[in-house]
Amino acid sequence: MTPPILLDIQDTVARVTLNRPEQANVLDEAMGQAFIDVTRQLAQAQQAGAVRAVLLAARGPHFCAGGDIRGFVATDDIATLLDRTIPPLHAAIHTLATLPVPVVSAVNGSLGGGGIGVALCADIVLAGESMKLRGGYSAIGLSPDVGVSWALTRLVGPMRAKHILFTNQPLNAAQCLAAGLVAEVHADDALMPAAEALVRALARGATGSLARVKTLVDQAASHSLQQQLALEHLGMVASGSTADAREGVQAFMDKRAPRFAGAPEPSA
Question: What pTM did the predictor assign?
């Protein structure tokens, strides 16, 4: 049986690929269990120093259409089905979002419901021109899961997040770029090459530095300025003690590209 999610690790780049194109990569029970299994493997590989960047993508014309609505129709107890399906998805999203390495998602086609949370848990989101984001939850009487309410609010603010989730009006790739939901838009046939180039470049970066950047940015909204300044102080001192900092400074003086060794950082 073809696995719902593929994990491939080569040259310190991990590629996580949603692998149910015939079902628009919907988040059913099998996908949820596969997701948590894959992210556990990914976290172990990262802690061992085998992963320095992650690329999250999907096979087929659609990244992820969201929840398995056919599964909802087929059950007499939607609440119990959701209660069983959501925990592994949430555990997987938390693991992926808090990995202390850069995570890049490459999004094409439909992006709806929980698929939004999967795509937006990445540090950087690249979109193909075919991308179309639609909330979808309230249209079928449900509410957000998979971190969707957190990601949308963080990226576009409470009012725009509620507009997306109340009205279910689709946003195309250009609108998502303007709203700050994605970092770049590419022609569909250029999306994966651009994402591959970015993730390989990040994997060559100073792993500890990137981990500290990620932590500082992700936590900034919950800190006062004084708290954030204190954490920046600690982070800079920790960074300054690394071999990568010494290499980066010397490479700058030598006017050459740095050769960062990287080092695994503990998972959050």
Answer: 0.94
